[in-house]
Amino acid sequence: MKVEITEKAFNPWDQLQTYEKTLTYGKYGAVVPFVGTMRDHNEGDTVQAMFLEHYPGMTEKYLHTLSETALQRYDILETLIIHRVGKIQPGETIVLIAAWAGHRAPAFEACRFLIESLKSRAPFWKRETLGDGIRWVGNNHSIFD
Amino acid sequence: MTITVKFFASLREQVGKSEVQIESSDSLTVEQVWTKVCDNAPLPVHILMAVNKEYSKPDVLVQAGDEVAFFPPVTGG
Asked: What ipTM score was computed for the predicted complex, to two decimals?
């Protein structure tokens, strides 16, 4: 199990290969990766760049708990989560998730569980840079309404 | 007792604070911490909250030295 938050751009396929080398060959029969990549558009606007904020300490803790839950809930052998923070350019990888298992079904299920849980509960926030300003993604309503 | 209160992302900009320390002689719930720091504004329904870096609920009692955080819905991945 590995969880990493990084400010550096990374190649998800290199990371997948590097981590897989630490695993025991012959034990797993399936790996399901998910790679999330930054688009250059959102909600009809061109997006020039993005800044990803997180809650240092809580985000790592949450992702560790999520990985442990996946390892208990599904018949899988290993999990990997790498997530970018800081300034990100279109085309760069935001997140890599992978689940290794003996067979494909639990690997698919665990990978889906990890990315859906991460997106709905892990403390990350996206701020987009547009041509005419910046905006936070997904929560534009005022708290004092 | 001293409590550290943190705000993140768009909420930090709206509240105008990143981190504050508050003193209280009474025990406070998470919701009362919000009210005390945010000039008696009611706690918005969509806001998420954590105590010591774990998700919490508004009615949880805060202990001396705790770190309480408030933040908007998350948008990672």
From this structure: 0.96
Domains along chain A? 2-21+31-136 (3.90.1170.40)
Identify whether the C-beta of residue A95 lies closer than 8 Å to the C-beta of residue A118: yes
Q: Do B69 and A143 touch (CB under 8 A)?
A: no
CA distance readout (Å), B34 to A67, A122, B6, B37, B69: 31, 21, 10, 5, 9
pLDDT tens per residue across span A1-10: 999 999 999 9
pTM, 2 dp:
0.95
Chain B residues whose beta carbon lies within 8 Å of the beta carbon of residue A125: 8-10, 71-72, 74-76
Residue A68: partners with Cβ closer than 8 Å, 6 or more residues away: A1
